[in-house]
Design goal:
Elements (H helix, E strand, L loop, with lengths): L1 E3 L6 E3 L12 H25 L5 E4 L5 E3 L9 H13 L4 H10 L13 H16 L5 H12 L2 E2 L4 E2 L16 E4 L6 H11 L2 H17 L10 E4 L6 E5 L11 H18 L2 H15 L26 H17 L5 H12 L19 E4 L4 E5 L2 H19 L1
Antiparallel strand pairs: 1-2, 3-4, 5-6, 7-8, 8-9, 10-11
Helix pairs in contact: 1-2, 1-12, 2-3, 2-4, 2-12, 3-4, 4-5, 4-6, 5-6, 6-7, 8-9, 8-10, 10-11, 10-12, 11-12
Length: about 400
């Protein structure tokens, strides 16, 4: 059985018989596609009626929609959701919208002051390249990888996330902060090597993954949010969890970025140590005593006011998407079943908004950063993006 997760020839074999697969859940998948189409139709109608190209990220307390500029780290997720909707429906209506919202991000390819260009261009241009054979997007993808590579610090062996005078450093005095989120940017580098033949991008991605593997994880395989390096010596100067409850707590979205990021690394390198790390992170998450029964985590596993702490649907959605890919490498494990259970929870009325509510976003109950008082118990465009990606991967697995 052959499942293709990349249009660049990177295919995945599932060595299992049909008897081990659940029946294709057409009704569940189609119901969620229909819901996404309804919400996206309302969202894009508002944008088109404005006469502008707007990029929705979340909502305010008064339920008004927050639109973001192209250099916001979340700017690629809504265009990416348009590509996923196009892919899930096959409806040509979504193609020009995906193209327009994606191409509004063209100048991101020159952005060098933070690391999140992998999210921004990977979710938009790379999806367009894959899903609509947009060959003209190749140059943007490769140029963005060049920009991201300028943030590589060879003595430390990492891609610096934030400039020392930016980011949420407060009084910490960081020199070279690297956040676990940076693992999500490596796909862009791997793809840039595939597109250009320049192994520089691949080598940077592998070095960053290896350094992160060595320094970001605790003995229980949970990860810190931020590791600060000396960019000249590579010395680890500090370990923090800026968006979590405490430096030594387990911030939920960080674990999602980690399991997804190392699964990506295995996809491109076939180095088993990366897949092994994804498995260890899985065990941490799904054996954790504070994981709720519905598998949608609290924003931090150690937050003290459980069960009244906010949940984070974005972490659950990202993790589910990673697990569908992991299931193609390790079909004998229960990764697909776990992902199915997560999606079932997210698609329930507890998390999936009614059409016309929630600022026209799909999922409710995500968290940006509670320590910074930002985006607490709101919809987030990246929660929707990874939910749709997980839905697409589920559909493709079950079709085969």
């Amino acid at each position: 059985m052959r499942i293709t997760l990349s249009a660049l020839g990177l295919s995945f074999l599932v060595l299992t018989g049909c008897s081990s697969q659940k029946p294709f859940e057409t009704d569940f998948i189609q119901d969620n596609i229909n819901n996404a189409v309804a919400q996206h139709t309302l969202q894009t109608n508002l944008i088109e009626q404005s006469g502008k190209i707007l990029n929705p990220r979340t909502i305010r307390e008064d339920s008004s929609i927050v639109y973001i500029p192209m250099d916001d780290w979340c700017s690629g997720f809504f265009p990416g959701s348009m590509w996923l909707t196009y892919e899930l429906t096959g409806d040509p209506k979504w193609l020009p919208l995906a193209e327009k919202y994606t191409e509004d991000l063209d100048s991101v390819k020159y952005l060098k002051w933070h690391h999140d260009v992998g999210f921004m261009i990977g979710c938009s241009y790379l999806n367009g390249y894959r899903m609509a054979d947009k060959k003209e997007y190749k140059d943007v993808i490769v140029e963005t990888a060049r920009s991201l590579s300028t943030r590589f610090r060879p003595h430390a062996g990492v891609i610096q996330s934030w400039d020392a005078d930016k980011g949420w450093q407060g009084t910490r005095g960081w020199k070279c902060p690297v956040i676990i989120d940076n693992m999500m940017n490596l796909e862009l580098l791997f793809e840039a090597t595939a597109l250009s033949g320049d192994s520089t991008f691949y080598n940077i991605a592998v070095k960053h993954a290896d350094t992160t593997l060595a320094n970001h994880f605790r003995a229980d395989n949970s990860c810190y949010h931020v590791i600060d390096y000396d960019p000249e010596t590579g010395e680890v100067r500090g370990k923090q969890t800026a968006q979590g409850y405490a430096d030594e707590s387990i911030w939920a979205r960080g674990q999602a970025w980690a399991i997804y990021g190392y699964t990506i690394c295995y996809r491109y390198t076939h180095d088993k140590k990366y897949l092994d790390q994804s498995e260890r992170i899985y065990d941490l998450i799904f054996k954790h005593k504070n994981l709720p029964e519905d598998l949608v985590p609290y924003w931090d596993y150690d937050a003290p006011n459980r069960p009244n702490e906010p949940r984070d649907a974005s972490s659950a959605a990202c993790t589910a998407s990673a697990l569908y890919e992991m299931s193609t490498y390790l079909p004998e494990k229960n990764y697909k079943q776990t992902a199915d259970a997560i999606l079932k929870s997210l698609a329930s009325p507890a998390y999936r908004a009614k059409v016309g509510t929630n600022g026209n976003f799909i999922l409710m109950h995500s968290v940006g950063s509670i320590p910074h008082g930002a985006e607490i118990d709101v919809p987030l465009n990246y929660a929707d993006y990874y939910f749709l990606e997980a839905l697409m991967r589920k559909r493709d697995l079950e079709k085969n």
